[in-house]
Amino acid sequence: MWSLSKIASSLHGWLNSTFDPTISLIIEMVIAGVSIIGLFAVLGLVLVLMERRVAAWIQIRLGPNRVGPQGLLQSMADTIKLLVKEGLTPNGADKFLFNLAPFIAMIVAMLLMAPIAFAKDFQLWDLNIGVLYVSAVSSIMVISILMAGWSSNNKYSLMGAMRSGAQIVSYELSAGLAILSIVVLTGSLQVSTIIESQADGWWIFKGHIPAIISFVIFMIAVTAETNRAPFDLAEAESELTAGFHTEYSGMKFALFFLSEYVNVFIVCSIGATIFLGGWMPFHIGHWESFNHVMDFIPSSIWFFGKTFMLIFLIMWFRWTFPRLRIDQLLNLEWKYLLPISMLNLLVMTAIAILGWHF
Amino acid sequence: MFLKEYIKDVYGAIKSLLVGLNRTGYYFTHHKEIITEQYPDNRATLKMADRFKGEVIMPHNANNEHRCTGCTACELACPNGTIKVVTKFEVNAEGKKKKAIDKLVYHLELCTMCNLCVVACPSDAIKMAPTFEHSVYDRSLLTKILNNPGSKIMEGVE
């Protein structure tokens, strides 16, 4: 049967038989890098179009429907527009930091792609601390935002960047604790082990109510971490006029825009991996025939289906909820989410020790 | 007591958020609710809202008669001098002189569609029309004379 891992392993075999191991390793690295960049471009196009369509339908509008069939080429046209636009640098800006910031945002998003399992046995780097790596690297994101806000020489940008710093630092905590409550059950930080442990059911079903609570907390925290509404204080179109990327134009703006959507994809794929079983098909206990039918659906489709479901959820949040004030945002984290997730972690640990989970 | 308030807070928050999600989810799945008008395509069937204000018109009946007495209330009410009433004196059958309008000049290019003239009119002579395709190449085309040529005041309107 066709699968991504078979293509990868046959490519690996062919390269190793044709070239010597060092050169084939270098070629494989280049191929991986190019495919990640390609995935970025496709994700940017697809997610921007998806967001605009979801937003339109939720607000009882039609959305983009003029460029190409059903408006499918709209984001392509926008990309071309952004590519040919001039990238301005403001006069008083710190030029080096100003031009560096969008690339850091992009590089962080690329680094985060490494431990994600896109399909069965199809993963760039299955390191033994995969989940820790993701939560550690994703906090570098805030540096690019602070850099952009500080170097823009614009008080609104600086304000947006500062808000974003406070926000990401606080919400990292509850996102980490939510992930930790599943790590307690699996006993491993390795992404492949976490997925393997969900072969007989996803953790959101196996972990009883605490797993559902930590899933909800995870979704709230990652919405805040990716700076999306209702937690988009860093951007806040109506008050800060886009916050940290006010002064950016052309392709530098596009990089920020792209990294936002790629980050949404990454956090959703982490959520899908940890709570919804990654590429693992939907299995119910001992229903052999049902499980067998589910196994026929390719694992990459399972992964992308779950991820896009979570992305849709985050988009749904964005176009439904009103934006929080900065004090409400920090209250929500420190007074509600953090105590609840700590208690939840305690309950989850008890469940794991007593073996009450399935 | 504090804990009770806390749990009530969390419950209320989650409930109200779910109500909102339910509403937007309904709109997302029910595309027949979409209110977008695809304007140039549906020009033939386009129906404007009843209260849409596009320009000031003066309705005339079949005998080319209007209801305007030339009282200039609309001119006084207009905040930016959009309306000019040019009056004349007509001699009626009994030999009495009576004030009537010669021209009611309306500058569409100045009008803000504030509706104050329509409200001010004591005899309901003018009203707002739901037309909106006003673009022209020459600005002077936007200065309109609202009463038809040769029109008279309707019988019984004072």
Strand element count of chain A: 2
From the spread of the alpha carbons, the general shape of chain B counts as elongated
The low-pLDDT segments of chain A are: none
Rounded to an integer, what's the Rg of chain A over CA atoms? 21 Å
Q: Classify the secondary structure makeup of chain B into a structural class.
A: alpha+beta
- Estimate the strand proportion of chain A: under 5%
C-alpha-based Rg of chain B, rounded: 26 Å
Mean pLDDT of chain B: 86
Distance between the termini of chain B: 73 Å
Distance between the termini of chain A: 31 Å
Strand order of the largest sheet of chain B: 3-4-6
Largest sheet of chain B: 3 strands, antiparallel
The helical percent of chain A reads 55-70%
Please give the count of helices of chain A. Answer: 15
Q: Percent helix among the residues of chain B? A: 10-25%
Low-pLDDT residue spans of chain B: none
- Run of helices and strands of chain B: HEEHEEHEEE
The tally of beta strands of chain B, per DSSP, is 7
How do the helices and strands follow one another from N- to C-terminus of chain A? HHHHEEHHHHHHHHHHH
| Pair with the biggest interface | A-B, 14 and 16 residues
Helix count of chain B equals 3
In short:
Chain A has 358 residues and is an all-alpha fold. Chain A is 70% helix and 1% strand.
Description:
The complex is a heterodimer of chains A (358) and B (158). Chain A is mainly alpha-helical and 358 residues long. Chain A contains 15 helices and two strands. Chain A has a two-stranded antiparallel sheet. In chain A, α12 packs across α14 (299-318). Chain A starts with a helix and ends with a helix. The mean pLDDT of chain A is 84. With 158 residues, chain B is of the alpha+beta class. Chain B is built from three helices and seven strands. Chain B has helices at 2-29, 73-77, 116-120, and strands spanning 55-57, 65-66, 83-91, 97-107, 127-129, 143-145, 152-153. Chain B has a three-stranded antiparallel β-sheet, with no helix packed on it. The longest helix of chain B is centred in the N-terminal third of the chain and has 28 residues, at 2-29. Chain B is elongated, with a radius of gyration of 26 Å. Classes of the chains: A mainly alpha (358), B alpha+beta (158). Chain A binds chain B through residues 54, 57-62, 316-317, 319-321, 336, 340, and chain B through 9-10, 17, 20-21, 23-25, 27-28, 31, 33-36, 38.
